[in-house]
Amino acid sequence: MKRYVIIGNGVAAAACIEGIRSVDPQGTLTVLSEEPYEVYCRPLISYYLEGKTDAEKMKYRGADFYQENGAKVLYEEKAASIDTERKRIVTEKGNEIAYTDICIAAGSSPFVPPFEGLETVPEKYSFMTLDDAYALEKAVSEESRVLIIGAGLIGLKCAEGLKERVKEITVCDLAERVLSSILDTECAALMQEHLENNGISFLLGDSAKSFSGNKAIMNSGKEVEFDVLVLAVGVRANTQIAKEAGCEVNRGILINDRMQTSMEHIYAAGDCAEGTDITSGEHKVLAILPNAYMQGYCAGVNMAGGQAVFDKGIPMNSIGFFGFHAMTAGSYYTEADGGRMYEEKTENSIKRLFTKDGFLTGFILIGREERAGIYTSMIREKIPLAEVDFDLLKRAATNAAFTEEKRKGAFSAVH
Amino acid sequence: MKRVYVNEEWCLGCHLCEYNCAFANSGMDDMAEALKGKKIFPRIHVEENDRITFAVSCRHCEDPICVKSCIAGAISKRDGVVCVDQDKCVGCLTCVLVCPYGALAPNENGIMQKCELCLTNSFGEPACVSGCPNNAIVYESRDEVQTEVDPDGRTLYVGD
Questions:
Q1: Which terminus of chain A has fewer CB atoms gathered within 10 Å of its CB, N or C?
Q2: What is the DSSP string of B95-123?
Q3: Is the pLDDT at B146 greater than 80, yes or no?
Q4: Cα dihedral across residues A404, A408, A411, A412: positive or negative
Q5: Has residue B157 got a pLDDT over 70?
Q6: What is the greatest pairwise CA distance in chain A?
Q7: Phi and psi for A7 in degrees, rounded to 5?
Q8: What is the pLDDT of residue B160?
Q9: Does the distance separating the beta carbons of A60 and B101 come in below 8 Å?
Q10: Does the CB of A381 have a partner CB in chain B at under 8 Å?
Q11: Could you say which of A323, A325, A410 has the minimum Cβ distance to residue B59?
Q12: What is the ipTM metric for this complex?
């Protein structure tokens, strides 16, 4: 009988449980959960602060999830090392768990640069976990001035979540634009304007150089006073345990299309893993929830002796602030890279579709209501533009742009 | 199982399915009261090009990518029907970003809604289908009929 152990208890781990049980109802299944909670929807912590959800609704699966799947969760147990010779996982508390197959779904951790004087800041927080959200909730009041370091997805969602709870919010970032990992300059400016209209202040192209108590001294020499500091500079994949076990590690734990690491019987999935972004062909940590699920499930099936492949990983995000949404996917090839861009703009919206070598490779839709999944699917499934009416499709995401055969397959056949 | 299928050559592009859908899911008894003068948010929508029109609603996929992608754990598949738990949904629109058919759209409050085959509203069977004047959308089973061979060598139909 197999002994499955999953390191981590996030969405990739839950998916891994479901993947394993789709093949093997018998083997023992142990989950090591660093946090004291059942699997919850990590991206919802900002919605929690905003009052749009609560701890109960944030649970990713129902109350019987682990029991129904015959999974035993060891809470507040963090894996310290993997002894591949004895096939044991050793936890930080010194406990040992025997395994036949492991999935490392250990997620990522906030990256905190060594700011001078950071230790003098009385109220400083990260924004990654439910406990971080609880701590921030307690730390702020209607009088709080909040400084958020980092204008990425985490920092800006934190700003939105806190907005109604505090007096003022300033977000700074070394980058010259907000959401620099997913938006180009013009799209970022539109999103920034919308955030500013909702009361968020920005200091871009500038970041904290040092701290002194409740004061940040910026690179520009400017000083910012605050009551609460949120550090959202970036995240790092949790790779150490894999590296020490002998797995090949880059920014994340390297995995193939079956979610296998370079070590036999060790798989990896989710934010700690580095798979292939099929829109660029590069190895990338694609730290988004849909990927975590699909990788985790794939790993689980293969751990249990099934045959699964996940070779459709693409970067994609649907993110909104104060009711204004941006949807992005894939790679944005410029003309210098041999790509072409189709664009539509209004005062409050931008649509950009990026094509290269006869395929749609990426898009940015901001301030637009569109059925973007039709575009995403073109990227994910690598549907050649020659097979669709792209003149129609570029103007609106519509199934009418597909051939009759494909449409009938979609709407008149069983799925 | 029974699903909504499209016969696009029969579609007149009349959009009645959209109105019947919005009414069936309004929770109201009177169609005029439910819809008159209001912007409707149906769970089915008619698409067109210069040659044809056809209605698009959830395919209830065998392997639904919306379920796997939902960041709120709010979409699940129960008894073959893909359902959204509106209490859990936060309106992030990730499902809109991934649905290959463009079959999902939010309601007037920004929370997701989708075709659940009218099984959870008072209508009980797809209102879009029963109101379609030209059989351009139908509610039927097109699964292959599954069979087993019993010990005596007879073919048993075990349904779908």
A1: N
A2: HHHH-TT---EE-TTS-EE---TTSSSTT
A3: no
A4: positive
A5: no
A6: 66
A7: -90, 110
A8: 43
A9: no
A10: yes
A11: A410
A12: 0.96
